[in-house]
């Protein structure tokens, strides 16, 4: 498995959870559970991706700009998750923030998979892609097993 395949597995989970979350309403156990699952998924993914995908790419001139853009999008998601954590689940504005988060997640994943991955594929060597996948998956699994209050 290479780093791109490893990252896509989490991307699929993020899409599914964010879409399910938008179908919830009010302060229900379903909404709370889905939100915690999405928050945990995004956190575990971002930690591993930052350390074992973005940082190695930042060490190259050609990877610097695209990496900085992707990291700024991670920051936007962090801020939206924090807003959701601070808003009552029953608040009508909660779903509006969740929609903005879902749109940001989907936009980010689309950009990564249909642009960034291709650029990164030209920068990273095949052995490095496999090595980074192993490191990413170990980090992802470690953080996935932990319950996080927020991404910040």
UniProtKB/TrEMBL annotation:
InterPro entries for the chain: Hemerythrin-like (IPR012312)
Residue ranges of domain Hemerythrin-like in the record: 3-119
Residue ranges of coiled coil: none
Protein name: Hemerythrin domain-containing protein
